[in-house]
């Protein structure tokens, strides 16, 4: 039975072959540069995708919350790193997980280090998160005072084990000069490694953004990479040059419910609750919430003339349609939408339908 015959409402499709190819390419790149690949699973949030990743030599993963860490525990990972400033209200849960799983965390201030010191009954490794210009979170690379307060607090007991420095250069998603950002990242991590390696000879440095990991070919003496979005990619990544549209591994199947040929628009059941509301701007100032692909028995094809979702509400999506698309599509058909931000779309949809008609798990699965 065709996977298409199973779809009656918005459904997130996953192309396993594309996803595996993305995993293999990143694993090959990491190996080429002598880097350890520890992918961020906040994108796929799937044990099934985790099994695929293991086939390419991936043994450790990154997550964004202790809840997500718990979902992946007991799944054979050598370590699960929580790449979010640790929330001291979750110390009890952390201790429960570390009884049978190796977990590492991130610290950005002395206060949380002190809370952990007072409460931990077993040892845990931690990174200090560094802000190298993104401005979202982390200790500034030159704020040695804060860094050393965290390290001194960790030394008071043997429960906090310093692992190294972590940078997520998130501004690589919207700054044009990715190479400049990476030069700043490399310099910051090199400076910190040089300053602290005599005291901590085994410290490692890790970067975590997909644009840099996908496009750069000089990682200096960085030790580890932890990109996430690369498993699926999306329209944003394609626009900034991290991938081609053919590398995007997920598409939202959306039912066509109305067509207005005079306005060159198509109404689909696909809104903010399905795609999320991440948006790109077109050259003429119009909004783009996702680009249209044509679904078929083997997945989807990218049409020669581009159509895109120009507006969304909670459940509605309005497509600015090309003449080619208007000629092909009728009410009751299904269209595919390549997401602007695949991480958010996957989180909205909470499950995937594979091209062989099987449901693929998600941490918040409804199937």
TrEMBL record:
Gene Ontology molecular function, alphabetical: D-serine ammonia-lyase activity
GO aspect biological process, one term: D-serine catabolic process
Entry keyword Lyase: yes
Transmembrane segments: none
D-serine dehydratase-like domain location: 249-356
Superkingdom, taxonomy of origin: Bacteria
Tagged with keyword Oxidoreductase: no
InterPro entries the record matches: Ala_racemase_N, D-amino_acid_metab_enzyme, D-ser_dehydrat-like_dom, D-ser_dehydrat-like_sf, PLP-binding_barrel
Keyword set, alphabetical order: Lyase
Protein family: Belongs to the DSD1 family.
Annotated protein name in UniProt: Putative amino acid aldolase or racemase
Organism the protein comes from: Belliella baltica (strain DSM 15883 / CIP 108006 / LMG 21964 / BA134)
């Amino acid at each position: 039975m065709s996977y298409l015959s199973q779809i009656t409402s918005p459904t997130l499709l996953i192309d396993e072959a594309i996803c595996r190819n993305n995993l293999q390419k990143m694993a090959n790149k990491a190996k080429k540069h002598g880097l350890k690949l520890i992918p961020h699973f906040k994108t796929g949030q799937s044990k099934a995708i985790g099994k695929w990743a293991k086939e390419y030599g991936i043994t450790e993963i990154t997550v964004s919350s202790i809840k997500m860490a718990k979902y992946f525990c007991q799944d054979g990972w050598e370590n699960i790193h929580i790449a979010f400033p640790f929330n001291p209200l979750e110390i009890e849960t952390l201790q429960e997980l570390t009884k049978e799983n190796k977990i590492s965390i991130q610290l950005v201030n002395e206060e949380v280090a002190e809370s952990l010191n007072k409460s931990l009954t077993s040892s845990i490794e931690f990174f200090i998160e560094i802000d190298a210009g993104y401005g979202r979170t982390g200790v500034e690379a030159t704020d040695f005072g804060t860094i050393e307060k965290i390290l001194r607090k960790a030394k008071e007991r043997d429960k906090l084990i310093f692992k190294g420095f972590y940078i997520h250069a998130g501004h690589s998603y919207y700054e044009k000069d990715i190479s400049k950002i990476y030069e700043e990242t490399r310099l910051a991590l090199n400076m910190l490694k040089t300053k602290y390696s005599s005291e901590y000879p085994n410290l490692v440095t890790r970067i975590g953004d997909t644009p840099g990991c996908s496009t750069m070919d000089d990682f200096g003496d960085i030790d580890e990479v932890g990109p996430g979005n690369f498993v699926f990619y999306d329209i944003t990544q394609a626009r900034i040059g991290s991938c081609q549209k053919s590398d995007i591994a997920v598409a939202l199947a959306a039912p066509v419910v109305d067509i207005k040929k005079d306005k060159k628009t198509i109404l689909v059941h696909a809104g903010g609750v399905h795609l999320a509301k991440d948006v790109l701007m077109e050259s003429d100032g119009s909004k783009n919430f996702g680009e249209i692909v044509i679904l078929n028995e083997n997945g989807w094809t990218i049409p020669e003339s581009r159509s895109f979702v120009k507006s969304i509400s909670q459940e509605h999506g309005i497509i600015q349609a090309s003449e080619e698309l208007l000629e092909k599509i009728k009410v009751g058909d299904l269209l595919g939408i390549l997401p602007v931000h695949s991480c958010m779309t996957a989180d909205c949809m909470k499950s995937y339908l594979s091209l062989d008609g099987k449901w693929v798990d998600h941490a918040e699965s409804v199937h």
